[in-house]
Design a protein that fits this description.
Blueprint lengths: L1 E3 L2 H14 L3 E6 L9 H13 L4 E7 L16 E5 L13 E4 L3 E4 L12 E2 L2 E4 L4 E5 L2 E3 L8 E3 L2 H14 L3 E6 L2 E2 L1 H13 L4 E5 L15 H20 L3 E5 L2 E2 L2 E5 L3 E5 L3 E2 H4 L8 E5 L1 H14 L2 E3 L1
Pfam families: PLDc_2
InterPro entries: PLD-like_dom (IPR025202), PLipase_D/transphosphatidylase (IPR001736)
Protein name: PLD phosphodiesterase domain-containing protein
């Protein structure tokens, strides 16, 4: 198991794992466009087809309707799946995932140029675990033998698991999420605090001043909905002794750590379009790993300067 804390390092790990793969490579990502793509990825994937003619390579792209995907340079043997939004900008395929016969990864799997993420806080979790493998082209997981990790395969289940984590907390809840735009979730946090006032709850999200280096991909609706909701929730959370903070870096993570032992990690934003009625298609994983949780919390403490908002 390995956690990557920045896009440069994530790209390096992805390159290494692609080079090692001989049977299959599966990449699910949101952006694969002309302005953002790292062209070295395309060259490397094409070279795998030449080196291993029987290898299966799949790229699933959650399309932004205004971004033309960079597909013409890909070898024709690479399977490309384009997931169109059901409504303009909304209900997209939002999951990020990377999978070979050697490793399963999720989180910040954006196949983009490193400089797009210089002030961007985005983690990727790599699991060197062969309990995950291809069964067929549409089903990548053997649920019966996934005894180490609880795979949460859609937004509704991800949200249920998040609430389970919070309600089970005995000491501390730490949440890092790009958005906080969901009334019911704020109410759930307040209910938990009222039931057990000794549980400390910390939320890291973006302030109005946070500099999103990818803000040209962010909709005006999402941006201002987030700002308005944050202002509404701020006093409500403060009155209930729940700490809401921001960082000097723009956070794009979606994670929850409970009691420094349990981690829910994936792609689900805390907003209605990601949660209600199976909105955006998401992917999360839940695991118990005290060492990993403490590594993450130490990194937050040592690296980021927080301000209460």
């Amino acid at each position: 198991m390995y956690i990557s804390f920045n896009q440069k390092n994530t790209n390096n790990v992805l390159f290494d794992e692609i080079k090692k793969a001989t049977k299959f490579i599966i990449i699910h990502t949101l952006f694969f466009n002309d302005t953002g793509i790292d062209l070295n990825f395309i060259s490397l994937l094409n070279s795998k087809i030449i080196e291993y003619p029987e290898i299966y390579i799949e790229i699933k792209i959650g399309l932004n309707p205004f971004l033309k995907p960079k597909l013409e340079d890909l070898d024709k043997k690479i399977k490309v799946i384009l997931e169109e939004p059901r409504t303009l900008f909304f209900y997209v395929y939002h999951a990020r995932m990377f999978h070979t016969e050697n490793v399963f990864a999720l989180g910040g799997i954006d196949i983009t140029k490193e400089n797009l993420h210089e002030n961007y806080q985005q983690f990727a979790l790599f699991l060197n675990n062969k309990k995950y493998f291809i069964i067929n082209e549409s089903n990548y997981f053997n649920y019966e033998i996934c005894d180490l990790y609880d795979f949460v395969g859609n937004s509704t289940n991800s949200y249920k698991k998040l609430l389970e984590c919070i309600n089970s907390a005995k000491q501390e809840v730490f949440i890092d999420n790009q958005y906080l735009v969901f009334d019911d979730f704020v109410d759930e946090l307040i209910t938990k605090k009222k039931k057990n006032s000794d549980v400390k709850i910390y939320i890291l999200t973006n302030s109005e001043e946070s500099n999103n280096p990818l803000n040209k991909f962010e909709t005006i609706v999402t941006k201002y909905a987030s700002q308005i909701s944050r202002n509404l929730y701020k006093n409500k959370l403060k009155k209930n002794n729940i700490t809401l903070t921001s960082s000097t870096k723009y956070t794009h993570n979606k994670l929850c750590i409970v009691d420094k032992r349990y981690l829910l990690f994936g792609s689900m934003n805390l907003m209605a379009r990601s949660i209600i009625n199976n909105g955006d298609k998401e992917m999360s994983i839940f695991l118990e790993n005290e060492e990993l949780c403490n590594t993450l919390l130490s990194y937050y403490e040592d690296t980021f300067h927080y301000e209460t908002i």
